[in-house]
Amino acid sequence: MNEFEFTPTYDTVCQAADRIRDVVVRTPLLESPALNKKIGARLLVKCETLQVTGSFKFRGAYNAISSLPDEVRARGVFAYSSGNHAQGIAHAAEMMNIPATILMPEDSPAIKISNTRGYGATVVTYDRYTESREEIGARIAEKDGLTLIKPYDNPAIVSGQGTIGLEIAQQLKEKGLTADYLSAPCGGGGLISGITLAMAKESPTTRLIAAEPENFDDTTRSLALGERVSNEPGHRSICDAIVTPMPGEITFPILQGNGVTGVFLTEREVTNAVRTAFTDLKIVVEPGGAVALAAYLSGKVDIAGKTVVAVCSGGNVDAPLFADILLEKL
Amino acid sequence: MNEFEFTPTYDTVCQAADRIRDVVVRTPLLESPALNKKIGARLLVKCETLQVTGSFKFRGAYNAISSLPDEVRARGVFAYSSGNHAQGIAHAAEMMNIPATILMPEDSPAIKISNTRGYGATVVTYDRYTESREEIGARIAEKDGLTLIKPYDNPAIVSGQGTIGLEIAQQLKEKGLTADYLSAPCGGGGLISGITLAMAKESPTTRLIAAEPENFDDTTRSLALGERVSNEPGHRSICDAIVTPMPGEITFPILQGNGVTGVFLTEREVTNAVRTAFTDLKIVVEPGGAVALAAYLSGKVDIAGKTVVAVCSGGNVDAPLFADILLEKL
């Protein structure tokens, strides 16, 4: 047992699915016959870029806030986030007519900060390389009586993200397919752990892969070592959405208990995946959202002849950066 | 009656839907709460950029080829197209294991030519400003015994494109909505006429709008005048997918008979819509595919407080051009 109010399970994922059904997009599971031919595999892409607020984070955010007791929720919520959890929380709070304050790194993509403000949240910025978001966050939350909704170490968040796994399992069944691999981007692990809970029950033969950026491969190394280890501080990454310091307290045991493995991708592999998503799938994927696709395209996972699923988790990327990636400047 | 083998109707659209159901993507009807707030309307985007081959054209192409008698189909098909019909025909032919030859303008987007070749078709290029595709096409088709599949003046093509209208009507019903306006890009009119057949029956109060690029507003002017008129030759447009000379022989009477009106958009209005689709919807839309969205964003249609649908019809755009649009160089 952990310090949290409950342990996320397959059942709590199903409960989350019921709770959020009417407000989330059942995102498509796309594929490109041309791309399949090129890579010699059947690749299906779960397109969470098309989720409300442009990333999967809205699922967990809505589930977590709507699970709060009425009088607690009414005081408002607080979150720290590089931007996708921020937008998810801000929009969910807006829908429920409660105040939201979000602490964001000052170097977050402009689109993420402006969208979060657009959803009516109060945005406070900090320096992610010198300040602790946990400390600043605790002070703000206490002062205004806000409830902190952590980005991944929260069972309602993990359960909400797991609804993606339920949808993937159902969409694969509709196509008469079973996936050999399912890969999802991994920062703190909220997404991949939730999906793992769903897939372990729905499709136990599917092997799950946590995809991470180079220098932020804490989950890959932790899973190999059998214990949670941190990233070396001081690195930067184009994958702003998933540059967390170490695996989550709730999320890591789920991955470890279900044989999930990790893989890390270089910046070049990630930008190549962003371009492929543009050219072959016609979707806008931010770098951090493209690492799972990159895992397959890079050759680091042996997918020849297999059926594989990649979650493209978000599309909140600034236009100038996306243009640079398209022009192969990155 | 016309020279064609049948007149497309609501019923032929429904038959097309049955014929193509297992091979097409039921594309999502997306919306962005943030964008809705900005424009003061409820905007739903039918996202045919996510269709097989990256545009709606695959629907009509598959329907038309699969409707041919077996022995005719076996000899192969021929098409002329700036690229989206080309890819639709090429991929449908590939799926049915028959040869396809496609005549394309030599200045078609590189992505469209290479994708068409990737689907196994033989591509022949011509100069769209000095040569007649109809004449070259007739020669090629006759020589090899191929069946010409015209891009819009073909009742099976119109019926196939109309399946988009059936899906939109069903998706709106699922959301409990009725659209005040539905706009779709218009070149020869295959898409908007097919959709009109579906919507006239499914949602008769919805007003239909054909969206065209500046200098290629032949349908807009023809509808206003009550007869088919041509564009002045010699103009060029960023909207390569929809720069046809005049409304189709089959398509125009459908538009005229159902009170469809037209609107034309400047290049600036179109590129603005491409950027909005990127930023707010996370989808890759080619310029010609974005004119219907541009119709609403431009202010040329009074959408205040209304529920409006835009078809984003294709996403086959070269990366350097898309980058220039994102960087506001266009």
UniProtKB/TrEMBL annotation, chains A, B:
Residues 21-314 form the Tryptophan synthase beta chain-like PALP domain. Transmembrane segments: none annotated. The keyword DNA repair does not apply. Keywords: Lyase, Pyridoxal phosphate. The keyword Methyltransferase does not apply. Its cofactor is pyridoxal 5'-phosphate. Gene3D superfamilies: 3.40.50.1100. This is Serine/threonine dehydratase.
